[in-house]
Fold each of these.
Amino acid sequence: MTVHYLSETSSQMYADVVVGTPIVYGDGYLYFFTDTNGNGEADEDEASRNNAYASFTPAPLEAAYNYQVSQEDPGGYAHNPRYHIQLLFDSIEALNQELSDGGVDMSGMARDASGHFAFNADAFRHWDEDGEVSASCSKCHTAEGLPFFLEHDTTIAFDPSNSMSCATCHNTSNPEFALYPVTEVGFPSGAVVSYGEESGSNMCLNCHQGRESTISVNAAIASAGVGDDEVSEALTFRNPHYYSAGASWFGTEVQGAYEYDGIDYNSAYEHTRRFNECTDCHQPHELEVQFGECTECHEEVETAADLALIRAHPEDAERFDYDGDGDDSEPIRDEIATFEGLLLELILEYGNETVGTPIAYDPVAYPYFFLDTNENGIADPDEANFGNRYNQWTPSLLRAAYNYQYIAKDPGVYAHNADYGMQVLYVSIVTLGGEEAAEGLFRPEIDYYE
């Protein structure tokens, strides 16, 4: 079923139900006619100027205009297909709002491309005003950046891209359109890892690795030269970046999260033999999880939304109430969320009581941690701006805030490496708030995967 057809169907439903005068589309001018016999088709005696539809209200008129725009550009699929889809999607949605039964089912439709082709996402639009994507960002945020990096082992600035392209990952001069060969990948910590020399998932690791690590956080703290609870103007928030799924999966092998000295953490997460690489679970272009593959082991998964219901350990394994709420069967994502909430509370408390300068957090405004000028514990709109960024960092606060942000910005950590995520959060909680702050919590044991 095409979007064109859905748009026409939506218009017919609206005209029939809301306006009360059925409409039909035909080939002749003026294209939209009164459906006198109500059969949903423009019969020969109906498709005439004398029978032109004359009961337009604003909503169907706007939708009809967009429908005709798309019809009259038969090459729209090549000229600007995304624009046409957006016009038609918005038109259907607008008409549906007036229909009591919801109108056309749009649950399987998408207005915009997703994942690597999400052309209107901040991942590609962030640099539009600058007119250039800097060398530090171009590898992952332009179509040309990654192949340039793979060929030259360095990055340069590029013009902003609409999204990635096929040639970002595939060698278009190769008759088989093969992926560029990537046998191993370096991480910000200096670690070099691989899913195997022949694995296409190594390509994913080039970008889904974060931009900081235990090493860089330690270097910043060492440079400041202050004690754990001493404020230094030399310290600023180190942003781990976003969707560092590869770093989470490899765990302590790459130290993408901040790992406290002298404490062990899990290494790479061995899920099952069938699901041990990025593309075993994710559709490589849209990044959506192929949830149908999960049902063999996780019977509760019937839709993509059900992935959040997964419990990490099978029914016959020893179960743990990680977050101490008395429920050892809740989704593992919920267990992690409790750890996150506790750590954020401690961060706010530490800023207020230990540093003496209240701190507030906003999950979408960079650099995320701000001066809480009215001391209400919330980053209000007038506080969540770069000029009001938090500037009273101590090493202890920086480590904890870094780990909070690291887990928050890998929303799939419950699947990528849940135990590692909870280990990271647990140690942050204990270090910042003391043993009593972790009362009732259980830190996952170390698994030494073969």
Amino acid sequence: MEQRILLGPGPSMVPEEVYQAMQRPVVGYLDPELFEVLTSIQKRLRLVFQTQNEVALALPGTGMSGMEAALGNLIEPGDSVIIAVHGFFGARMVEIARRYGANCKVVQQTWGQPIDSEMVEAALKETPNPRLVAIVHAETSIGIAQPIQDIARLAHDYGALVVVDCVTSLGGLPVHGDRVDVVYSAMQKCIGGPPGLAPITVSPRAWERIQTRRSPNLSWYLDLRLLWDYWNEPHIYHHTASPTLLYAMDAALRLIEEEGLENRYRRHLETAQALWQGLGELGFRFMIDEPNRLPMLTSIEAPVNEAELRQRLLRNCNIEIGGGLGEWKGKVWRIGLMGRSCTRENVDLLLGALTEMR
């Protein structure tokens, strides 16, 4: 099968170096050589998360396992939590938190607009003893880059932990993991690996909360205490980890390290700016104003026959782009420039194909 040009909301294209790493022989889940890979991943994750946290690992599953682990390990039944929502994945946070028994205070913003820190502060004032504040850094459903720093400061002032969804931003935008408490992501976007692992890091403050829970985590499989005992001494068996996916993650993180974070951030921004210029010249309307626009995920108003045109792109040009979710389903196209997919060549291919279709 010919390699797709993956320019949707994920997965992104996988570098050849990662495919090569995945060809290494499978070993047992308690093999000392695999533990060396786990140690390497932890060190490289701290670099990408921009954190000194000891707890940094990769969960089995995609970004949704990261979301569930981040919320489920902190929330106990009856806890008050504040969740900022301005897109599809913020709403998923609310659903998961409620399933774990949380009393959710939802800070609801119009799709396409960033969450204002004053909205979060108002919710904090109305919520006695808030357990946590959760927010999406890069809302994939709309393509907005959400400022986090002021919200994190406010949450900490009120004694709340801060959970941040960086599924789409990790490896493409600064995430400043030391300024918040739990950050999770996914391997298949800016990290540049195949789907199947969810990086996560936990601050000492959040880890203490997890260690002193009054009741057991409702999810055994995503219990971070059990998973951490596998990732570190004494390496207690938890589940049959996939060496192949772990090799892939280590290789993808190595490529990020070699490129350098600042260079990688610059590449994502400059490539996105070239895309924005070309789309503007073609007459497309952007759903997000440029100051808040996410470099790795651009949302534009779609033509009336958007699904048909996306299928033509895939069938005739071998290019995948995404449609809308939730409130924006059928109304937008989502164009991803993540990891290895983020190149000027791919931008030129897409703009040329769109020019021929119009």
